[in-house]
Structures are given as structure tokens and as C-alpha cells.
């Protein structure tokens, strides 16, 4: 009998900080042939939790054990701790060629830190997946989190191209689109499209919470618009404390520009310049419509329609009930608009085209306008 060829050892991926992002990354490689995912936390009860959830193959509280022989190390801890982890790892005998990367929401300081330190055998490449959630912790982790999102890498002129290619290859399992830029450019752009919006959302919620202290109707009337613009105000305070302080220089400039935007709006209002206000909305609409739409596999396989519904109690429930009674499988129902003076719009999603076709027929017999 011929002896079978020896299998190459699986690539070891060590993940430090198995929370929302670390856990989601782990799930992209867990169970894939040729990979072994090891999680690290300082806390034994955290290790127990994500091992029992099946997010990693193994877990440990020992930094040295997690890092030993790792082919890839992902630092997924808060931005304020990244430098400390790099310092600790630099003291260990890392596997020659090991790729050390992070997922922090800011890049300039961590890239500069790694460069200053000059790792011996490992190569550091800054990384940042542009996907996330206001939720945190491993319970919120999902293998689909990064699908079709951008994943930024910030190599420097000194980064070996083979190491970048190796990391890119590994990241293919996330189904994200890798994009490269330098760390400073990253921090400027992400400051504007992510960090400033988080500040604005939190400030707005706190402003309204202040008014609400004397009248609870503020809270009760806060509907779609307020929810849409403030979802991210529920993000983890410690994660965001670190991000904002780390990107202070960029953010102070952006907040100055923001005050300018507010002043221009104030002037338009003072002058009752309706045309000017309309123009600002049109301009915003035009830019916003160019934002990339993130299509996840789950969503692209959906078949959707829109239904105009009058603003009357029970209409949404009636439509859902009729669909259920007709055994039409509705996979999602989203109320896009609901105000007193305009009809609401419902978005209905189905997994099968056949379900959509039957739903459209049925809803039209209920005399609601359906469109696509
Ligand atoms: N949340 C997002 O939307 C998002 C998106 C992209 C990148 N990031 C970045 O990813 C990193 C992790 O964020 P997350 O959203 O996964 O947070 P998370 O709270 O879900 O996970 C953080 C992990 O780090 C550990 N941790 C927390 N404090 C620590 C400390 N002081 N020392 C050591 N370990 C600690 C936690 O146990 C947990 O495993 C951050 O650097 C964040 O900037 C977040
Ligand atoms: O969707 C969200 O909740 C996010 O806040 C995700 C988000 C973002 O602002 O887009 C937040 C922080 C990250 O570093 C990357 C992505």
C-alpha cells in the first residue's frame, strides 16, 4: 500500500480580543481546511465563553501560548491597548515570517508604534475592516459581518509585498474587498465618515435627552429619522473613548468644519432662504445616492417589493397576517417611512421569487399599491 503524502501543518491564526470583530474574523476561518484558530483573552471566563460558543478551535489566557508558532496574529482589542500588545509580542520568539496585524479603527499611531519598535522576525501590517455594529462582544460576532465591506490595509514602503499578498489571501475568507492606503490618509477619511458621525449621533441623543427631562413626549415621538441617525450612539463607550482620543488631531479639525456647516445652515434659516435649504438637501441627496450599497449574500438572494400603506393603526399587522395565512414566507419586513401626514412605505423581502409573486398578487387584492 502506498503511503499518503504528509499534510502540511494547518496555519495557526491567533486572535487577541475575541469580541465583535475578533470573533467575527475567527468565524471566517474556523472549520476551514488548513487553518487553526486560537483565541486569547486576559480573562479565563471570556475564553470559556467563546470556546463553548465554538467561535475558535482553542482558547488561552497565555499570550506566549497564543503567539507561539502563529502564522498570523490579529490584534482585536481596543485602540488604546494595541501598542501594549505589540510591545509584549515583540519580547516573544515569534515564528519567522509571522504576519502581525490589527483591526483598530485608527491606523497612524499603531503603524508608527510597530515601525519604531522594529519587530525582528514578524511583519506588521495595519488593518481595519470597515464593517461593524453598535453591538459589541463575541455574542454579536458573525461570519457574514465583513461580506462585501471594504477592508483597509495600511502597509508602508518597507512592508514586503509577499507579506501583503499573504494577508490578502487569508482575508479572502472574509469576503471583504481589500483596499490599501497610508495610515494618515486612512485616519483623515475614517475620521470624517465614521468618527465624526459617532460624535454627532451621541451629541444629538444627549441634546434630546436633556429636553426629555421635562417632557417624556420627546422620547415617545422619536421615530424613524431619529433612530436612523442615532443608531451608532449606542456603540460601546470604552471602544469609542479610545478611538476618539487617538484621532484627536483629525477630529478637532473636522469638528471645526462641522461648526462651519452648522453656521451656514443657521444663516440660511435666519434669512428664511428656502431655495438655499432646498439646494443643501439636493446636494446631500446627490452625494448620498452615490454611496456604495453593501450587498450581503443573504440580502442579494432576497426578492423585494415596496408597498404604500396609509398611516392607520393595524395596517402593517393586517398585511403580515394575510401573508402568513396564505403561507407566503416573508423573510423581512421593514417600515421605511411612517409619519402622520404621508403614507408609509413597507419593504417586504422574500427568499423565493415565487413567494414575492404570490405576495404581490395578494397585496394588490387588498388594494394597496405595490412597486419594485
Ligand atoms: N465595533 C465596530 O464597529 C468596529 C469596526 C471595525 C473595527 N473596530 C475595532 O475593533 C477593535 C475591537 O472592537 P470590538 O467592536 O470588537 O469590541 P468588543 O468590545 O466587541 O471586543 C473587544 C475585545 O477586546 C477585549 N478587551 C476589552 N478591553 C480590553 C483591555 N483593556 N485589555 C485587553 N483586552 C480587552 C474584550 O475582552 C474583547 O474580547 C477595536 O480596536 C475597534 O476600534 C470596531
Ligand atoms: O455600523 C456601525 O455600527 C459602525 O459603527 C461601523 C463602523 C462605522 O462607523 O462605519 C464603526 C467603526 C469602525 O471602525 C468601522 C465601521
Automatic annotation (TrEMBL):
Protein name: Prephenate dehydrogenase
EC number: 1.3.1.12
Residue ranges annotated for the ACT domain, each copy included: 304-372
Domain Prephenate/arogenate dehydrogenase intervals: 11-299
InterPro entries: 6-PGluconate_DH-like_C_sf, ACT-like_dom_sf, ACT_dom, NAD(P)-bd_dom_sf, PDH_C, PDH_N, Preph/Arog_dehydrog, Prephen_DH
Main enzyme class: oxidoreductase
Catalytic activity field: prephenate + NAD(+) = 3-(4-hydroxyphenyl)pyruvate + CO2 + NADH
Similarity section: Belongs to the prephenate/arogenate dehydrogenase family.
Pathway this chain belongs to: Amino-acid biosynthesis; L-tyrosine biosynthesis; (4-hydroxyphenyl)pyruvate from prephenate (NAD(+) route): step 1/1
Species whose genome carries this gene: Cohnella xylanilytica
Gene Ontology biological process terms from the UniProt entry: tyrosine biosynthetic process
PROSITE patterns given in the database record: ACT, PDH_ADH
Stored Pfam families: ACT, PDH_C, PDH_N
Gene Ontology MF terms: NAD+ binding; prephenate dehydrogenase (NAD+) activity; prephenate dehydrogenase (NADP+) activity
Keywords: Amino-acid biosynthesis, Aromatic amino acid biosynthesis, NAD, Oxidoreductase, Tyrosine biosynthesis
Amino acid at each position: 500500500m502506498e503511503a499518503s503524502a504528509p499534510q502540511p501543518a494547518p496555519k495557526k491564526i491567533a486572535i487577541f480580543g475575541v469580541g465583535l470583530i475578533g470573533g467575527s474574523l475567527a468565524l471566517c476561518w474556523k472549520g476551514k481546511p488548513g487553518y487553526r484558530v486560537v483565541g486569547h483573552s486576559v480573562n479565563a471566563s471570556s475564553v470559556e465563553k467563546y470556546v463553548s460558543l465554538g467561535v475558535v478551535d482553542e482558547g488561552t489566557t497565555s499570550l506566549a501560548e497564543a503567539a507561539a508558532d502563529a502564522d498570523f496574529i490579529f490584534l482585536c482589542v481596543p485602540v488604546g491597548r494595541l501598542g501594549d500588545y505589540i510591545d509584549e509580542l515583540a519580547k516573544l520568539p515569534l515564528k519567522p515570517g509571522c504576519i502581525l496585524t490589527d483591526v483598530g479603527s485608527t491606523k497612524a499611531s499603531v503603524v508608527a508604534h510597530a515601525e519604531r519598535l522594529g519587530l525582528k522576525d514578524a511583519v506588521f501590517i495595519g488593518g481595519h475592516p470597515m464593517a461593524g455594529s453598535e453591538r459589541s462582544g463575541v455574542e454579536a460576532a458573525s461570519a457574514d459581518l465583513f461580506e462585501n465591506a471594504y477592508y483597509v490595509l495600511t502597509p508602508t514602503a518597507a512592508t514586503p509585498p509577499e507579506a501583503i499578498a499573504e494577508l490578502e489571501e487569508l482575508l479572502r475568507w472574509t469576503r471583504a474587498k481589500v483596499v490599501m492606503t497610508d495610515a494618515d490618509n486612512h485616519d483623515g477619511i475614517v475620521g470624517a465618515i465614521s468618527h465624526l458621525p459617532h460624535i454627532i449621533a451621541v451629541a444629538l441623543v444627549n441634546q434630546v435627552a436633556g429636553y426629555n427631562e421635562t417632557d417624556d413626549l420627546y422620547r415617545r415621538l422619536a421615530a424613524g429619522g431619529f433612530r436612523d441617525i442615532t443608531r451608532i450612539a449606542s456603540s460601546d463607550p470604552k471602544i469609542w473613548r479610545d478611538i476618539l482620543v487617538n484621532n484627536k488631531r483629525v477630529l478637532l479639525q473636522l469638528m471645526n468644519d462641522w461648526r462651519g456647516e452648522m453656521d451656514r445652515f443657521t444663516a440660511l434659516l435666519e434669512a428664511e432662504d428656502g431655495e438655499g435649504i432646498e439646494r443643501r438637501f439636493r446636494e446631500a441627496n446627490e452625494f448620498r445616492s452615490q454611496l456604495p450599497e453593501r450587498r450581503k449574500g443573504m440580502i442579494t438572494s432576497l426578492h423585494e417589493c415596496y408597498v404604500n400603506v396609509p398611516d392607520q393603526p393595524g395596517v402593517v399587522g393586517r398585511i403580515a397576517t394575510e401573508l402568513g395565512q396564505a403561507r407566503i414566507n416573508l423573510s423581512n419586513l421593514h417600515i421605511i417611512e411612517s409619519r402622520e401626514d404621508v403614507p408609509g412605505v413597507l419593504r417586504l423581502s422574500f427568499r423565493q421569487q415565487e413567494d414575492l409573486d404570490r405576495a404581490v398578487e395578494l397585496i394588490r387584492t387588498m388594494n394597496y399599491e405595490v412597486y419594485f
